[in-house]
Write a structure and sequence with these properties.
With 548 residues, this protein is α/β, with parallel strands linked by helices. It is built from 21 helices and 13 strands. It has 3 domains: 232 residues, Glucose-6-phosphate isomerase like protein, domain 1 (Rossmann fold), CATH 3.40.50.10490; 196 residues, 3-Layer(aba) Sandwich (Rossmann fold), CATH 3.40.50; 39 residues. Helix 4 packs across helix 13 and helix 13 packs across helix 19. The chain is globular, with a radius of gyration of 26 Å. The structure holds 6-O-phosphono-beta-D-fructofuranose. 6-O-phosphono-beta-D-fructofuranose (F6P) binds next to loops.
Length: 548
């Protein structure tokens, strides 16, 4: 797998751009009465409307051809069957197996049936969640657990936190779930000061059990527990762990029966479906957690079986490539019009940017084309009063994903109608824009003088023709949240496969970790820093001075 630029469809798309530039999204609607039918696809509880894109029928068919020529189907099949497609770490990539254990009996990888392991872990989770929620699990003073604190970072934090937030309407009242990630004393202090050690249980989530931030926070939590009444021999009642490194978790003091397994074949940012999702299950119950897995599994099945031109991850992935590589778009924005999905952009940001922020093809050669765009976003309508200005009139092309449920969990007056109206009108405004004539007429009708009209009208022009997808679902449920996240996982996969990169390693984060250890050592010692650059030296000195 190397550069896709030699593919016939890539060359055809380069030439085709001029044809697309000669028209506009609106003109495509005007000339194609069946545009909306052609550009609407349903899967796993979601409807994707991708009609408001700078893509004609020919563009769409060239993009499908690109996916075909890049042979994403073969890589996809390899992923599902457990081949070691993460070549730089020599690992299988099997997050899809985490949600397939009810549908398939066995999947043997390295002589072991991973689905049997998944089923047994789900059972272990079930027991744990039931014990906590029923009040059978008691703290050291025989009180019920009321607060569960998840300690983890990156994939061991973002996915679970975002899903817990998204499924708040399904939260059982018995236990509150909190998250600590950052290595910032202020974060952990603020969280712990509201908690009672007698009724608090910590879940230390770390695949490696070697991540600095997580170990610092886990140690600080254990110290807090011991300082406030707990004893060493009671730690097992207040600490559990999810890790593939059982030895290190045991060394930390966690009882072996409280350790939930993780496997090498699950990447951190794809791990919310494993026991890393335990805090989600504690919050919403096991039945809802299983529904989350079912939703993701249905999206997996769609991805595996739907024809490429009707395949949501393929459509979204290839359209993303169209903008990234043929229009030079540097970023992609996700705008959920739902309070419960406000954290989604942060999770997809890690998922996508840690996966596809790469500059080497699988064979080690440099990619001479752009790969993963900058993923960002936030909840509508807040963004409309902040960064949407740039989406409408800025110089950069930023493709948008609007995401909205059709019904709300919290009807208040006609809030939901207004919220949805905002979502639809934003995609409409991005597409239609405003011409100079319209701007002038508007000013004229408001009584402006000719001089004022000429001065102000150019500032009111909005070019329009800005692309967006809209994803709709009937209701936000565990099932639809599961399928939505799986959709973005597979979209990321499709793009990585076309770019010919390995979406499943993350070597880039390693250097920062190594240098971080060195700098931490320098901050607390009298080491001579002369060999460092003068900026780094000055920053170290500023810190040391402030501590003295
Ligand atoms: O940020 C890098 C990373 O390796 C992520 O991929 C991972 O999710 C996170 O650190 C945490 O790792 P662990 O679960 O091993 O603590």
């Amino acid at each position: 797998m190397t550069s896709p630029t030699h593919l016939p469809s890539w060359k055809a798309l380069s030439e085709h751009r001029a044809e697309v530039d000669a028209t506009s999204i609106q003109q495509i609607f005007d000339t194609h009465s069946d545009r909306i039918t052609e550009c609407t696809v349903n899967a796993a509880g979601w409807t994707l409307d991708f009609s408001k894109n700078r893509a004609t029928s020919k563009t769409l068919s060239l993009l499908t051809q690109l996916a075909k020529e890049a042979d994403i189907e073969s890589l996809r099949n390899k992923m599902f069957q457990g081949d070691t497609i993460n070549s730089t770490e020599n690992r299988s990539v099997l997050h899809t197996a985490l949600r397939a254990s009810h549908a398939q009996e066995s999947l043997v990888v390295d002589n072991s049936n991973v689905l049997a392991e998944v089923r047994s872990t789900l059972k272990q989770m079930e027991k744990f969640v039931w014990q906590l929620q029923s009040g059978q699990w008691r703290g050291y003073s025989n009180k019920k657990i009321l607060d569960v604190v998840s300690i983890g970072i990156g994939g061991s934090y973002l996915g679970p936190k975002v899903v817990t937030e998204a499924l708040k309407p399904y939260a059982q009242d018995t236990i509150r779930v909190h998250y600590i990630a950052n290595i910032d004393g202020s974060d952990i202090s603020e969280k712990l000061k509201k908690l009672d050690p007698e009724t608090t249980l910590f879940i230390v989530s770390s695949k490696s059990f070697g991540t600095l931030e997580t170990l610092y926070n886990a140690n600080a939590s254990r110290e807090w527990f011991l300082r406030n009444g707990g004893q060493e021999n009671q730690i097992h009642k207040h600490f559990a762990a999810v890790s593939s490194n059982v030895k290190k978790a045991v060394e930390f003091g966690i009882a072996e029966e409280n350790i939930f397994p993780m496997w090498d074949w699950v990447g951190g940012r794809y791990s919310l479906w494993s026991a890393i999702g335990l805090p989600i299950a504690v919050s919403v119950g096991m039945e809802n957690f299983r529904a989350l897995l079912d939703g993701a599994h249905e999206m997996d099945t769609h991805f595996k079986t739907a024809p490429l031109e009707k395949n949501l991850p393929v459509i979204m992935g290839t359209l993303g490539i169209w903008y990234c590589n043929f229009y030079g778009a540097q970023s992609h924005v996700l705008i959920p019009y739902d309070h419960y999905l406000r954290g989604l952009p942060a999770h997809i940001q890690q998922l996508d940017m840690e996966s596809n922020g790469k500059a080497n093809h699988q064979d080690g050669s440099n990619t001479e084309i752009d790969t993963g765009p900058i993923i960002w976003g936030g909840s509508g309508t807040n963004g409309q009063h902040a960064y949407h200005q740039l989406l409408h009139q800025g110089t950069r092309l930023v493709p948008v994903d609007f995401i909205a449920p059709l019904t709300t969990h919290n009807p208040v007056n006609d809030h939901h109608l207004q919220l949805f109206a905002n979502c639809v009108s934003q995609s409409q405004a991005l597409m239609v824009g405003k011409t100079l004539t319209q701007a002038k007429d508007e000013l004229k009708n408001s009584g402006a003088t000719n001089e004022q009209i000429n001065k102000i009208a150019p500032h009111k022009v909005i070019k329009g023709n800005r692309p967006s997808n809209t994803l709709l679902t009937e209701k936000l449920t565990p099932f639809t949240v599961g399928s939505l996240i799986a959709l973005y996982e597979h979209k990321t996969f499709v793009q990585g496969a076309i770019w010919g990169i390995n979406s499943f390693d993350q070597w880039g984060v390693e250097l920062g970790k190594v240098l971080g250890t060195d700098i931490a050592q320098r901050l607390s010692s009298s080491t001579d820093n002369a060999e460092l650059d003068t900026s780094t030296q000055a920053l170290i000195e500023a810190f040391k001075k402030a501590q003295s």
